[in-house]
Design brief:
The complex is a heterodimer of chains A (about 120) and B (about 350). Chain A is mainly β and about 120 residues long. Chain A is built from one helix and ten strands, in the order ββββαββββββ. Chain A has a single domain, classed as Rieske Iron-sulfur Protein (3-layer Sandwich), CATH 2.102.10.10. Classes of the chains: A mainly beta (about 120), B alpha/beta (about 350).
């Protein structure tokens, strides 16, 4: 796969998250003050479905299930203190009013890969 | 049976009894296993089987919908070991100990059943041993005849007691509820495991308390208020309690809440919020030092609270839809950080 058209920028209002299916790959688009990021739609903590549990507020993602947080621009952990898991992400850009994501393969979390000791 | 938790090059072994739930056996050994509801619904206690066999005791557990079964994931709260096993547990710090108090198995005997409303019962249980818990914690209760454990928060706060006070709300098709309504009597025995839960009140944190509860969620809040009043927490700190019920006839613990307000140096307010019926003429029978409003408890609390976020600690207890909506409002509208919000989400 290569750059894929995920959605119109109008489809994801400011400070919100929305999930799309791109050729069978689920992609979560975040609009942070009209900067767009593309993530797999699972929480890095316990793989909760962020389209349902995720809250985008002031550039921070809160998964409301366990209240873990990440910076949506960088994907870096914010809280709680034991959270040092980086969000997986697809490269994203905006072209002609569309959010584009570079998708080679579906990204998935696997707690075998955790490196938080 | 031996359980080995592996994480990269680290290994941690512990033994549990035959048929004992892996989560319960592990926590009793102070293994810091992740969990939330401990009764099969939330999915937080998932683990992955690397080798050996486990027995699932509840194949229809709602939390199983969050598992990747093809990868060998299972719920530790609903599974026991069929053989020695090796597992992987997400996020576990295997060099740390689970927080105290350490949960354990007890046998309880019902000493009192009091119906507080048409569908809410207040249950007193004497345990066969001393029981330490923190305000806001819960236990898992099992009976001889009802399959699966149910989680109930303690209403009382009494360190070192052997008595638990629980609130049980009858559900139309609930097995435990039917058991309570039809079979339970004084002297009936129960299996009790606990204490569990991280929505704990810590008076040393010196916070103003914002407590928002729906229905029987008031149970853990009552324990928190008892602890807070017993250490004069409201001499220096404020508290606001919002208690949502459907109608005035569904309200309970009114006298006890009124007593907490009277003991609070005027720093605690309690607001009872009616969702289905606002019958002002019925308020004359309710305590005059409580407030009464109509609406849904979460939005009413968010709209009404005067607790300053900088010094606030929020305790939420109730059904998931209430908790989730209130968490979102506290973060977006009130600027709460995640460390300021503790919650007990009913399944």
């Amino acid at each position: 796969m290569t750059w894929k058209n995920v959605c119109s920028t109008d489809a994801v209002p400011e400070s919100s998250l929305k999930q799309f299916d791109i050729d069978g790959v689920p992609v979560l688009v975040a609009n942070i003050d009209n900067e767009f990021r593309c993530y797999p739609p699972a929480c890095p903590h316990m793989e909760e479905r962020l389209a349902e549990t995720g809250l985008c507020n002031k550039g921070v993602l809160t998964c409301t299930t366990h209240l873990w947080q990440w910076n949506l621009l960088t994907g870096k952990a914010v809280a709680p203190s034991e959270n040092n898991r980086q969000m997986l992400s697809y490269d994203a850009k905006v072209e002609d009013g569309h959010v584009m994501a570079y998708i080679e393969e579906e990204l998935e979390y696997d707690f075998d890969d955790e490196d938080d000791d | 049976m031996k359980i080995t938790i592996s994480k990269k090059e680290q290994f941690l072994d512990f033994d549990i009894g035959e048929d004992e739930r892996i989560l319960y056996g592990g926590l009793a050994k102070r293994i810091p296993l992740p969990y939330e509801c401990a009764t099969g619904t939330c999915g937080t206690c998932k683990a992955r089987l690397v080798s050996g066999e486990v027995t699932s005791h509840w194949d229809d557990a709602p939390g199983r919908s969050k598992l990747k079964l093809e990868r060998g994931e299972f719920l530790m709260c609903q599974s026991s070991c069929k053989t020695n096993i090796e597992i992987k547990v997400p996020g576990i710090k295997i060099d740390q100990l689970a927080i105290e108090p350490i949960p354990k198995h007890s046998v309880g005997s019902i000493t009192n059943i009091e119906w507080l409303t048409r569908d809410v019962a207040h249950l007193s249980v004497d345990l066969n041993q001393e029981f330490n818990f923190k305000a806001g914690q819960f236990v898992v209760v099992q009976t001889e005849t009802v399959v699966g454990g149910r989680a109930y928060s303690m209403v009382n706060y009494d360190p070192g007691t052997n008595q638990l006070v629980l609130v049980i709300k009858l559900k139309p098709d609930g097995g435990f509820s039917n058991w309570l309504g039809n079979s339970a009597t004084i002297g009936t025995t129960l299996q009790v495991y606990g204490p569990l839960g991280a929505a704990i009140f810590e008076p040393a944190n010196d916070k103003d308390l914002l407590c928002i509860s729906g229905g029987s969620g008031i149970a853990g809040i009552m324990s928190i208020l008892e602890h807070a009043c017993s250490v004069n927490h409201f001499e220096q700190n404020r508290g606001e309690v919002y208690f949502g019920v459907r109608t005035p006839a569904d309200a309970f613990y009114m006298a006890q809440l009124s007593d907490f307000v009277a003991r609070s140096n005027s720093n605690l307010t309690v607001t009872v919020v009616f969702s289905d019926e606002y019958a002002s003429d019925e308020h004359s029978t309710l305590p005059s030092n409580l407030n009464y409003m109509d609406g849904y408890v979460g939005p009413v609390a968010i709209e009404s609270t005067n607790i300053a976020v900088e010094k606030a600690s929020a305790f939420l207890a109730g059904p998931p839809i209430m908790i989730d909506g209130t968490i979102r409002s506290l973060i977006v509208e009130k600027g709460f950080g995640p460390a300021q919000i503790k919650y007990d989400k009913f399944a």
